[in-house]
What we know:
Blueprint: E1 2-10, E2 16-25, E3 30-38, E4 45-52, E5 72-77, E6 99-103, E7 111-116, E8 123-125, E9 127-129, E10 148-149, E11 156-158, H1 161-168, E12 175-182, E13 185-204, E14 207-218, H2 225-234, H3 239-246, H4 262-353, E15 371-372, E16 378-379, H5 382-393, H6 401-405, H7 408-412, H8 416-429, H9 431-439, H10 450-463, E17 469-470, E18 475-479, E19 489-491, E20 504-505, E21 511-519, H11 522-536, E22 541-550, H12 556-564, H13 566-569, E23 573-575, E24 581-582, E25 587-588, H14 599-609, H15 614-626
Parallel strand pairs: 17-20, 18-19, 18-21, 21-22, 22-23
Antiparallel strand pairs: 1-2, 3-4, 3-5, 6-7, 7-8, 9-11, 10-11, 12-13, 13-14, 15-16, 24-25
Helix pairs in contact: 5-8, 8-9, 8-10, 14-15
Amino acid sequence: MGLNVSLKLTTSDGSIIDQYNFHADSTDGQGIYAYTSLRPGTISTTISITWSTNKKNIPAPNPKTTTPAGTGSTPTQSPTTTAPKLPADCDEVEDKTSGIQIIYPDGINPISVYCDQTTEKAYTVIQIRGTLKNISFDLPYANYSDWFGESGIGKNFWMGLDLMNAMSNNGKSYNLQIDLCCGRQLRAKQIFHGFTYRWRINRLIGEEKAWYKTFGIPEQKRTTRNEMEDVEMAQPAEKDGEAERQAGGSGNDGSLWGDLTEMEESKRLLEDKNLELAEELDRSAAEVETMRKKVEEAEKLVEKLKKAMVKEKAVSGGLKGSIGHLEKKLAKAQGDRKAADGRLGEFERWIELFRKEEKEECGCRKGKAHYVEALGGECHDPKSLALSTLARNEKIASEDVNLMKCEEDFRKKLGKSERLEALRKFAGICPTWASKIMRNDWTEEELEWREAAESLKKEVMYRNQPQKAIIQEKYILVGQRMGLKSKAVFEVRTATISTWKQKFGWEKVEKAVVLVEWTKDDKQLKALVNLVEEIAKEVWELVVVPARMECGYDEVGGVTETWQKVRKTALNVEVVDPMTPVGPKKMPLILCDLKPGSLEKMMEYLACAIPGHSLVDRLRADVEDSEPKIKKHRAN
């Protein structure tokens, strides 16, 4: 029987700052216990407890508490009570549930740690790296001597090298287990047997430096030479043997190295070679990973090209279907024309038979303009002629034509084709109607004739547009300020760049190379882009080659990006990168010297920019033809 007393010092939120447990035996008549807490960051607190086994009140004595220098809590007892042994690790605490416990690794200073009681021997958690960002482990070596952080699952905590050294060298044997977790899921772990921290002294030239060193034997892991040295140091050895080894002695101190044989030395060399091979294997694995990424990029590019080919096939199939549909319409139109030609003689006979003069006048200076219709009557305005054309198309009997012209439902049938034919005929004989058609001068009552007039105007403009010069070359070069003489070279002036393409017929051109200046001028750049897009509609393949650099060297990339966007709207356009290294000096293409007026220099420049292109061979032929021929005289 006896008395169990537990003392706890907590914060306002319930967190334990310090804790101490002791037992008083009932055989003691009376006793006194004094406890002083000097934990850093707290107020110095002293608690005194007295007890007695009889029923009389015993005045509490005035205990004197002494606290040694340092940080921690120091209990002081009266001579009548023996203080219990302080727990040095989680295996010695009384509470065998997993959680936060108070231990005394050095026998003096308490510390709150997390105890893992799930195994036969409890684990003391010396380090936790959780998901919180409130504690940084990126600290100088000196900061790791003392503890920092807060122990607990998911938090950040470090027990301190001084306390680890005291705990691991208290005469007990410890195992170190390192858990690699993702959240609360264990990913991997490693166990080291015979784990200790030891204070080592390194004697360098002119100075001595001390530090802690970790010792332990890993499970299921290759033992390298350095690890064998750690195993040796982990073996218990007497202080005399340690001193003799540090002094360079060769006595029998139980050292592992003293008993190594020639076979063990060969084994260490083999282990070192295995490590080298493992490093080479890692490098090979990295190279394989790089090649795998390149293969994936190539596969993506192939897939993209396949999709583009499928799209091109779909477009080609649609064009073939449209061509077939137009061919059918053309055949039908040709048949209708033959039928119309067969009725032409009959219409001419009607024109001679039917004529009717109307009172309406067109306003021409030369008098009333009129058109003699097929049935012999005269039409003095397009509306009357359009109704006559409708009656002819509807196959109205000749004696009923004038009557049907006055019928309202019949007049509503008048369509664009009849109005277009009537306007076409009257525009040929009446200047007034021709002016109205070309100027689009219509009253509100005549708005229904505007669509037919616009169609006629487009027809006339298209029929009378300037004749185009047909380009006879398959491969051509287009550019500004070149000064070259060749049938395959076409020079564009800045003033006419917007209408230059419409001057030529492109039926025979297959490939074109456009030589452009690399400029940041938005107006000039936009005009060049529009020219390239227009030419791309006429040829099979078009290549944009940078010529002179009209921008800063740091602006070349931005201009190149603008040209690359053209490929999104024109699939047959390729853009040569101006930073492509060319020549023996591998200098950027945009910095090459391109002098105007020399066909040979231009051919050499294009051979660097677009090697193997058909235009290069075409220009080379012109260069060879332009070279002077040497005449040979035959001796008499």
